Amino acid sequence: MKVANVALPTDPVRPQAEVRPEPAAAAEPRAPRSPGRWARMRAGLPRTGLAVLCGVLLALSFPPYGLWPLSVAAAGGLSLLTYRRSARQAAWTGFAFGLTFLLWLLFWLNVIGLDAWLLLAFFEALFVALMSAGLALTSRLRAWPLWTACLWVTQEWARDRVPLGGFPWGRLAFANTSSPFTPLAAIGGAPLVTFAVALSGALLAAALLQVWEHRKRSAGVKRAWVLPLGRARGLLRGSRTRLRPHRLQRPGAHRRGHQGRPASAEIAVIQGNVPHAGMDFLGRPMQVLEYHVAETEKLAALVKAGRAPKPQLVIWPENSSDVDPFVDPTAKALIQQTVDDIGVPVLVGALVNGPDANHVQNEGIVWSPTTGPARTTPSSTRCRSVNTCPTGRFSPSTSPNSSAFRSISTPERRPVSSRWVRPGSVT
Fold first, then answer.
1. Which residues contact 92 (CB under 8 A, 6 or more apart)?
2. Ranges 108-112, 283-287, 308-312, 380-384: which has the least confidence
3. Average pLDDT over residues 161-168
4. Which of 63, 203, 288, 339 has the smallest set of CB atoms within 10 Å of its CB?
5. Where are the domains of the chain?
6. Residue 360, SS3 per DSSP
7. How many CA atoms lie within 13 A of 149 on its CB side?
8. Which residue has the higher pLDDT, 143 or 284?
9. ∠ Cα 113 116 119 (to 5°)
10. Closest CA to 269 of 230, 216, 311
């Protein structure tokens, strides 16, 4: 039986719906691809380069260059480079800044070994990296320049103590020994000087940021430059009047001296030098002492000839007597003869035996032309180093042959003397 195909009648009330093709599904928008690691690194290269440049500026503010204004510029530059960045970005920027600065500053350590120089610079730069992360976090606060100065002081405080007694080289204060900030040391020591330098750099950075914001928001470019820079100029002018350096004055300097002038002291500083660089810089025994004696004798001859004013005190540096003058009669007689020739007290930096046969102590001895060397205990005439730097004055390990320090204290790298400088107490 066949079934025929019969078309059904349409409903006259409900018309047949028109069949339309379904629209194609819209393509889903792709999520933006995050930049890869190499792309992020390339994007950060200019900032890293500027951090390296700021590290060089800070190095140039230290001796022998002594361009102290660059310390303010370097601190301000680091503040700008870390301003409102992430902690990770700021830490890398600070590490590049600190490593550049410390590699330059500590280059002299290569006489001990390349590993000692690189490792110490790397480790100390980590403190600057941590500080820079803090700079980025605090840059979002209202009084961020004050926080910046506090973080600089905290970083130097930590570096001065950790690890193994710390390594305090490279403080901002040490670049400002002859600057308008120097008188602050009489009030708060090196930390206050560092605080003032870092605060000045942060305020300079804040002024530049304000200039940039005014340039973006206002069409009056001239007003944008004049307003913040005028404030900065007033700040610097006030610092010049309040922080003017002074000559070294004696107690009672408020009294008037000859012809109504303030009382002052004439002090001669002798730098006799060492035979050569390296771990055996002391050369043969008494050689460094002879160098300082010769330079002091030259000064005495100039004074007798009237070609130089007679000093009231002569200062020799530490290790100027590389043998114990209380044990070696030749060294004692040589120093006494020199002091008699110059006719004024000499502060002698000497290595003195004690307190046992395995140690020496770093002492400063006032040697008088009338009474000779200070033998007794008054702290005003003889003192010993109280907190000596472990990485520069004595072995930080219990034994120089400890495995932790064997790589940088091998026999060929040790000084001529196998004894180590031991910290003492002021006597």
1. 44, 48, 129
2. 380-384
3. 80
4. 63
5. 45-242, 264-421
6. strand
7. 22
8. 143
9. 140
10. 311
Who contacts 260 (Cβ-Cβ below 8 Å, separation ≥6)? none
Could you tell me what percent of the chain has a pLDDT over 70? 64
**Cα(405)–Cα(411) distance, integer angstroms:** 12
In order, the DSSP letters of 293-350 are HHHHHHHHHHHHTTSSPPPSEEE--TTSB-S-TTT-HHHHHHHHHHHHHHTS-EEEEE
- Give just the sign of the alpha carbon dihedral 70, 71, 72, 74: positive
Q: Which residues contact 325 (CB under 8 A, 6 or more apart)?
A: 331, 332, 335, 348, 350, 352, 365, 373
Q: Which of 101-115, 180-194, 235-249, 337-351 has the lowest average pLDDT?
A: 235-249
Confidence of residue 244 (pLDDT cuts 50, 70, 90): very low
**What whole-number distance in Å separates Cα of residue 116 and Cα of residue 292?**
30
Which residue, chain included where needed, has tokens 């059904």? 8
Three-state DSSP class for 384? strand
- Please tell me whether the overall predicted TM-score, pTM, comes out greater than 0.85 for this model: no
User: Which stretches of 287-328 are DSSP H helices?
Assistant: 287-304
Q: Token pair of 382, please?
A: 């003889």
Radius of gyration of the chain (CA): 34
Query: Is 70:61 a contact under the CB 8 Å cutoff?
Result: yes
Among the ranges given (104-118, 183-197, 249-263), the one the predictor scored with the smallest mean pLDDT: 249-263
Separation between Cα atoms, residue 63 and residue 186, nearest integer Å:
21
Residue 116 CA, chain-centre distance (Å), reads 18
With residue 194 as reference, give the H or E element that holds it: helix 185-217
In this prediction, residue 202 carries a pLDDT of: 95
Average pLDDT over residues 124-128: 94
CA 129 – CA 98 distance, rounded (Å): 7
Look up residue 237 and give its two tokens: 């002018």
What is the rounded average pLDDT for all residues in the chain? 75
Crossing angle of helices 221-242 and 185-217, in 10° steps, is 170
Mean pLDDT of the 66-80 span: 93
Say yes or no to pLDDT of 39 above 80: no
Tokens standing for residue 281:
């810089």
